[in-house]
Structures are given as C-alpha cells and as structure tokens.
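Please describe our next protein:
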Amino acid sequence: MNPVEAFIIDLEGNQKEIMLYLHSLLENLNLQSKIRYRIPFYYGKSWVCYLNPKKNDAIEMAFLRGNELSNSQGILSFNGRKQVSGIMLTCVEDIPNELLDEVLQEALLLDETVKYNVRRK
C-alpha cells in the first residue's frame, strides 16, 4: 500500500468513499500521486490537482492551474484564491462525472502542452 492509499484508508464515511473514487479515477488517467503538505497531490509533468479533506465532511478537488482552465462547465470556484480553483464534493452520488471529466481532460491537456512557469516574488 502506498502512502496515498494509507492516507485514504484512515479517513471515514463519505470522505473515504469520495477519496477512493477520485484516487481511482486519477490513477486511471495515469497521474502519479504523492503526499505533499499532508494531503494527496496528483501530477503528470507538473502538479495537476490535489484532494483536500475538509472539516464539513466534504472533499475539495483543487486544480493548481485553475486560473488557466476555461471553467466552461461552471463547476470550479476560486474561493478567494488567485490561481487554484476547485470543486467541493460531499458524496460520490453527487459527483458531476461528465463535467468533472471535461475539467480533468482540459487540465491534462494543459499539463502536457503548456509549460508551467512558477512565478516567485
């Protein structure tokens, strides 16, 4: 069992179910996973997204280059952040699979074709 799977197994209830579902989905897209900042991050050429358990029993799936995504699906929100956007998920049954798949495909295309430039102050 890798560290991300161990992290997920320690969760309870809806969070565990959502995380297992999303982890499987992201691994099927050939993304690698690592624990960074105490949560699972998924990457291809660069970091694509992370899964963040929230206190309200939800999981946020956040895209590190959210400001570069079109969000034509209307499911991503920035919540006061300038770069990272995400979607809050409370149960597997309510996951908008088709819309989420579109966002993931766009994020993967961005990761494959546009080099990520880190801007440091």
Q: What stands out?
A: The chain has a mean pLDDT of 93. The domain at 3-112 is CATH 3.90.1150.200 (Aspartate Aminotransferase, domain 1). The first strand starts at residue 32 and ends at 36. The radius of gyration is 14 Å.
